[in-house]
């Protein structure tokens, strides 16, 4: 797959951006809430990269070269929100986003860390949403 082709699920997300019910079923947020998070998520990604440079993990910030499967900030945010909302297996995630299950695991691990998100975080308000969508209480645990 070419690195700049969007997965069909992200194309669906963009084409149905005014349908809050459809968008919430995918990522647990409305499109306007998603749009509020994009610059915050981008800042978080940049902060993590700067820390990696400072700590000597990498010598310089990534630039040039192949853009990768998750080639844009909104796609990266959509990917991690979709994962957190739906909790698919890495094999299912790989099939949906068109890369290997190992890549799916790597992206989840990296983006979850970069988001600064943790399930115990508060949700925030509608104007300042947090990254983690909350599941209804009846879906939170195992129901025999």
Task: Describe the fold and architecture.
By secondary structure, the protein is mainly α. Helix content is 53%, strand content 0%. It has one domain. The chain has helices at 8-15, 20-27, 31-54, 73-86, 90-97, 101-115.
The low-confidence parts are: 118-127, 131-137, 139-144
Tally of structural domains: 1
Distance between the termini: 42 Å
Overall geometric form:
globular
Note the quaternary state here.
single chain
Strand content: under 5%
Instruction: Name the average pLDDT.
Output: 77
Characterize the largest beta sheet: strand count, sense, and whether it forms a barrel: none
- Class from helix and strand fractions: mainly alpha
Helix count from the secondary structure assignment: 6
In N-to-C order, the SSE pattern is HHHHHH
From the alpha carbons, calculate the radius of gyration and give it in angstroms.
16 Å
Number of strands: 0
What's the helical proportion of residues? 40-55%
């Amino acid at each position: 797959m070419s690195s700049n082709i969007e997965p069909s699920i992200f194309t669906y997300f963009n084409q149905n951006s005014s349908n809050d019910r459809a968008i919430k079923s995918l990522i647990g947020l409305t499109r306007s809430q998603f749009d509020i998070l994009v610059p915050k998520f981008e800042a978080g990604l940049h902060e993590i990269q700067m820390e990696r440079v400072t700590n000597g993990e990498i010598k310089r910030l990534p630039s040039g070269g192949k853009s990768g499967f998750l080639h844009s900030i909104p796609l990266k945010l959509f990917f991690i929100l979709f994962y957190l909302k739906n909790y698919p297996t890495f094999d299912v995630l790989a099939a949906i986003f068109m890369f290997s299950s190992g890549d799916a695991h790597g992206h989840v691990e990296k983006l979850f860390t970069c988001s600064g998100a943790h399930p115990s975080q508060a949700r925030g308000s509608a104007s300042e949403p947090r990254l983690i969508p909350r599941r209804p209480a009846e879906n939170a645990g195992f129901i025999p």
